[in-house]
Every structure is written in C-alpha cells, then in structure tokens.
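# nightly structure sweep
# worker-07 picked up a monomer target from the shared queue
# config: single-sequence mode, recycle default, output format = structure tokens
# input follows
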Amino acid sequence: MRVRDMKNWDVLIVIFLLSLSTVVMHPALAKEPKSAANASLGMPSNETELISFVESALVHVKDVGKEKAIKDFMDFNGSWVRGDVYIFAHDFNGTTLVLPFQPNAVGTNRLDVQDANGQYINREMNCIALHGSGFYRYMYRNPINNKTQEKVSYVSKVDNNWWLGAGIYYNNSVSVESNFTSKSHNGSLVSGELESNCPMMWKYIRANDAVNENLSIIDQDLERACEELSNVGIQGLEAQAILKRLEHVHPSVIDVGTVDANGTFFEVEPEVYQSIKGVNVAFREDQKKLSASKHPIGFEIIRTIEGFYALEDLSPVFDETGRFVGGAGILLNYTKLFDQILSPMQLGGKSKFWVMRAKDGMTLYETDRSQIGLNLSSPIYRQFPELLNLGKMACQTRTGYGTYSFFDKTHGKVIKKGVYWTTIANQGEEMRLMMTIEQE
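# output follows
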C-alpha cells in the first residue's frame, strides 16, 4: 500500500503534522552507555533537575547552533546522555531529530507512536511544546533495563520549527514532584484538551488525516481492482464491470481504465471517454515508470490526452502466472478532490488550508478559485517577492514555516501572514498541504 492508512489521528502541521510510522524498540537497544563518564555528570532525579537539564540543552543550541547541538545530543558517550536520561528532539511535524538510543528512528515521523495506555505521546508533547514548555507523564520503555516504566518528561520549544525534552523514569528516580502544568491532565492531554488547548494543531491534524485517508481509500480500491483484473484480464466484460465499480470510489473520479504492457488503452469507464480506447500513451512518464519498475507509481499530476491536468493513481496488473500484463489507473479532478475533503474543514476568518504541487508551486486547491492552476512563475506573484521566496522554500523542503507581508489596498495597511506546510503522504509526486494564518 503506497498511501498509509490514516484512520487514526495523525499527522501535519509543520509545526503540526503527521505521517505515520510504527516504531518497535528492540531489546538490542537496551544496553549500558559505553562511557562511565556520563554518570559522573549527575543524572537528573526530580522535576527541578530535569528542567535544569533541558534548559542547559536549550542554551547549548543557542551557543553552538542547531546542527552541532543535534550531533552532540546524539553522541552516546557525550554529556547529554546520563544513564537513562537523555535529550530527545522532534520537529513540529513529528520527525525525530534526536533519539540517541534509537538512532535508526532519526529522520522518521513518529506522531503515531502510542504508549501502553494508547496515548499519542509525541502529538501531545508537540502540543505542550508548541505553547512553550511543560511536563508530560506516560509509559515508555527504559533503554537501560528494557522495561516499560512510567516516565515524566519536560519538553520545551526551541523555535517555530522544533522542540526538545528529556525525561526521568519513576522507578529509577529519587523523587518525582507532582506540580504538573495546567496544560496536563494526569500528565496526559486527552483529545478534548488537545482540541481546546491547541485548536490550530488539532484542525491541521484533522485536515491532514482527512486528505490521507481519502487517498488511502482510493489507493486501496485501485489495488483491489488490480487483484481482480489479475484473475479476469484487463479487457472484456468482466474487466469493464470491475472498472465500473472502481469509477465510484470517489466523486472526483474523472475516468478509470486499463492499459496493456505496451501502454495502449484497453478499457475505459465511464462511456463518455470510450474514444481513448486504442490510444497509445507509452511516451508518457507515468507509463514509462510503470513499465520500467512494474510497481505502483503513486499519485501524480499528469497532462491528460484531452489536454487538462489531473491527479492519477496507477498500479501494475499481473496475470495468474505473475507476468506483467499492463496496469490500471484512476484519473481524479484534484481541485474537486481536495475541495470536497477540505472545504468542510476550512478554518474560516483569516486562516485557510490549500494545496500545491512541490515541483513548481502550482496551486491545486485554493478557496480563491482564481489562484488554482497558477505556479511560482506566474506574473501575478512578481509583485510579492516575500511570498515568492516563501513558495520556493515550501517547494524545496518537505515541512516548514515562514512569513510574508504585503500591502492590502482594500484595508490600506500591511498584512502579515504565516504559512505552515507539510508533505501529503504519497510515494508519488510531492504535494504540500498548506495552512495560511493572517497575523495581527
């Protein structure tokens, strides 16, 4: 499956967001620190010492910069790993930046990690850090004894892009005070509190979930259709019946069809598109990828035979002997797709969700319909250099945050806006889910 199942609360504000990953802590990670020098530095044993430890880490970031600090925090023999107390860090999109006992997890998105009680620990610590700093109580595996124990962590925002923290395990600590901040409820933010304390984060997570869940459903139905086509072939009445069912997977579907191994259309639904049967599209990049890899290519923006742009999901079909015989694809009206998903979730007022293609900044969905189809090279953006630079940055980085200002002639004043973005979960073409907030 190319698009992860997003039925659980997940994902994207850069400051927020989400992609899904399952993390298993292996017993091999439960080993003693290689250097005894760490112990001599003193291991925090209560909340006061924990705050000092984290605040020292924040000072270290300020002194040496983010890149050097992250390298130091990851040093298993360095001063930032003290027994089972260590600095960990994530960006606000959920990507792990520092986790010395699990180096393989660095660079992965861990917003879906749950503790033994089902708490989404990184999402909730994200929320606390987003508002500054605070304590959080949860269950977590101790890397030294490999046992799951109750843990209290203190987390703090570094800047608008990332946060760091450290925690102590109850069974190992001398004393753990109980003066948790008002942001916590028994050390754990429940769903209602997450929604009320971090409304913007909550809405962005919900929007990201909705986009990815819809793409996942479409993708699963296509894969199911490909399996059925493997049994009956890609041409004929039975193949047509499979495509007719696939046609109704989502209201934004334009057409569905099959192509043979040479890139020639065999079957197409609905009937209005029958004219493209027999047309060869082997020259298109999507078909070249399918033919070369014989793997699903993911959702990609293509220029159709009819001349308009659409979002395509294309997967291979194999016969009962395992021989590659062609593929099946779904063509979607991307503006209609994202509009149906995001319109009911739009923030209203001065904030909004929109979607753009990372390749060239082309707007795929916007509440302002006049913006749809425009890209960064469009003349309209030349008078807004800050916006243009921000758009280029969003194209080049999978997650991020930036601001820009412009003079609003209607209101006769300079308007400043903040923009958060994250990458929509998809192994095909990169698309960004954007959130624009007008700042006072």
